[in-house]
Amino acid sequence: LLPYWFRLLADGGEFRAITPDGAAMIDSAAAGTYNYEDFRTVLFGAQEYDGDFHFNLLTPQSLGTLLEEAGFTEVRIIEAGRRNGRCFEFEISARKPAPTVP
After folding, report:
1. Distance of alpha carbon 92 from the chain centroid
2. Stretch 5-13: mean pLDDT, rounded?
3. How far is CA 33 from CA 15, 28, 87, in A?
4. How much is the average pLDDT of 79-85?
5. Cα gap 68→97, rounded to integer Å
6. How buried is residue 93: exposed, middle or buried, by Cβ count under 10 Å (0-12/13-18/19+)?
7. How does pLDDT run across 44-64, given as a tens digit for each residue?
8. What is the average pLDDT value for the chain, to the nearest integer?
9. How confident is the model at residue 16 (pLDDT cuts 50, 70, 90)?
10. β-bridge partners, 16
11. Residue 43 has what pLDDT?
12. H-only helix segments in the chain
């Protein structure tokens, strides 16, 4: 999906995403500060509507690596570990580089 979005984005354009923060959820669960039912619901989906299932668990670092592999640059974690209801989330941005002029 990221290579597809990379192709769609204008040169110099910015990609931004907010996604569940797997690292923050696991750290909080391990520390005993994250309710098991919330963790399970967020991890596997079905929080808000039929078909709301997650098929991947991302961390800021893992998505950053995937963005770089897709060709994005200037990857920046805007915020990590932000609580949003039952979920911890992170916000990330990256840029599609503008072509260099010879």
Report:
1. 7
2. 96
3. 32, 5, 13
4. 95
5. 11
6. middle
7. 876 677 777 777 889 999 999
8. 91
9. very high
10. 93
11. 83
12. 2-8, 22-30, 36-44, 60-69
Task: Compare 101 and 31 and report the one with higher pLDDT.
Answer: 31
Give the neighbor-by-neighbor strand order of the sheet with 73-84. 14-20, 87-95, 73-84
Positive or negative: CA dihedral 22, 6, 14, 97: positive
Both tokens of 9, joined, read 């984005």
Q: Which two tokens stand for residue 14?
A: 């910015």
> Tokens 């005993």 appear where?
32
Q: Which two tokens stand for residue 34?
A: 């994250």
Joined tokens for residue 80: 């990590």
Give the count of beta carbons closer than 10 Å to the beta carbon of residue 43. Answer: 15
- Which residue in the block uniquely carries the two structure tokens 């994250």? 34
DSSP at 10: P
Task: Please tell me the distance from the alpha carbon of residue 37 to that of residue 29, in angstroms, as a whole number.
Answer: 11
